Give the backbone structure.
Amino acid sequence: MSDEIFDVVDDRDRVIGKQTRREVHRRGLKHRAVHVLVFNERGEVYLQKRSFKKDTFPGAWDSSASGHLDSGETYDACAVREAREEIGLFLHRTPKRLFKIEACPQTGQEFVWVYRTESNGPFRLNLDELECGAFFKADHINRWMAERPRDFADAFRLVWKYLFHPPPPKPKTVAKPAKTAGKSKPKAAAKPAKAAKSKSAGPKPARRGTRIKSRKTAKARPVARKPGRKPVAKARKPRRR
């Protein structure tokens, strides 16, 4: 079991390498897993009791079937394989995806996809993987988990919580605009807008060398007479008879 090879992933569940099962768990590296919940026609869910030989949570109650993805394996393929290997349930199609849990300490740094399928059993148990199993009502599991939470594997307690209260969607990261190489030239200051011409603004100032034309004609000024002189009357020419 310690020689199993897992894909190591980053914070966004992208494969960045490979490591053995032992090394992944020892170093707390992020990896992948699945949980399959099997419900019967009465709405009860099948739980398995993990083998006491397990390196994590031996003897704890867990999902119907669960396990790690092998290197290069998909989540869907792993769900079908784990159901077959652990409880002898052969699925002819991929079970329904319910939700995904982000890698965290409670999952053992596993990204977990949770699946749901229906079957009334009976099941053929792999006793190397689990001790026993049974169907339980949801109310019974809720009371049991509230009274003795340590009877259950940590990851399953999170799966059970999100089954009734799904996890919030992961916020999308907004990509920042790429910076151009080198120093960017400062933008030129915007030129002030020209004032709009108004018809009532008055006459334009005259240029040099030009005469100002008055709109109104100038009034004739009276001719000043010199004092002491009488106007000389012009002599009339005698008319011929």
Q: What stands out?
A: Residues 5-164 form a domain with the Nucleoside Triphosphate Pyrophosphohydrolase fold (CATH 3.90.79.10). The two ends are 163 Å apart (CA to CA). The first strand starts at residue 5 and ends at 9. DSSP finds four helices and nine strands in the chain.
